[in-house]
Amino acid sequence: MEPLQRTPLFPHYAAFPAVRCIDFGGWELPVQFTGIQQEHDAVRRQAGLFDVSHMGEFLVTGMYAEAFLQQMTTNDIANLAAGQAQYTLMCYPNGGVVDDLLVYKYSDDQFMLVVNASNIDKDWAWLQDHIIGDVVMENRSRVTALLALQGPLASAILSRVTDADTGSLASFHFIHPAVVCGVPALVSRTGYTGEDGFEIYAPADQAGIVWKGLLAAGHGDGLIPAGLGARDTLRFEARLPLYGQELSPDISPLEAGLGYFVKLLKGDFIGRGALLEQQKLGLTRKLVGLELIDRGIPRPHYPVYADGSLIGEVTTGTQSPSLKRNLGLAMIKMDYTALDTEVLVEIRGKMLRARIVKTPFYKNTPASGKGVTAP
């Protein structure tokens, strides 16, 4: 077996005696530092600090960089000005999803892509296979650390450790170069929690300085480190997709409810033909929210039934830490997607009643939120 990979911040986890790490796609990452409920609540009420340095970062440069990314992604890169970021997706020719990602525009001929950790090698190969013109790519994943400072007090905390005007930074905009805790960084107003917040990209060998500096600056405000458990419950409540659950090679962006990020009129891109056809013919299934009526918690891959037939499956489910309701996201047949439609979820051999409910389950008015308030 290959040894688990560790982020540059792994040595700092030991400062928290209750930390619990798991194998997450080949990475040894903290599922919690103190407890998922406490960390979830901190992000909703004060602030939490996430180590997401396992994510991948690719630099894409060249005169044809924009044209290349227009061909590879579903959103419209031409809408970006320097200093802006964009949520987008890469699709296969059949409309299924290679990955969902962020694109940062440094200049007309220089961009940064931020991809999911489990897809770094796959995404790199996919992009390399389709490269055009003078485009050059550089994989910066190993030398880049990524910290996410999220929550209603994130802006106030960050302002104490940087001279950059992060407080007036608009959603999906970034400052580069910036200095955070004395370390050169890129600071963007983006995140994956449904709350206001920032993502801070810094050199891997200086990540510990930023981590400790932010925790010290926010200590009096209740800032605590947060792990994968809270990251998942937070993004779930805000209906933000997780690749491998709400998105996959077998699930299109339209089925996942991400049509806003698919600009079919921008011109050709990989997967456009299939997505146009899907739009023309109409969806046969889509992602919906559901709430258990009977006592039980839906989990990924639990079957969903109606009228005696299998109509889909749960993609994500849990007891919502904010709402204390047993909720799930499910990919089901269109005939059963109307609000308040009753369905059955099979949980350990029992058929439990559930109803289709509105999503997102939780909605703040954040300055950021990957996939929620992205421009």
From TrEMBL:
Organism domain of life: Bacteria
InterPro entries, A to Z: GcvT, GcvT/YgfZ/DmdA, GcvT/YgfZ_C, GcvT_bac, GcvT_C, GCVT_N, TrmE/GcvT-like
Domain Aminomethyltransferase C-terminal: from-to ranges: 285-363
Ranges in a coiled coil: none
Transferase recorded as keyword: yes
Family: Belongs to the GcvT family.
Protein name per UniProt: Aminomethyltransferase
Gene designation: gcvT
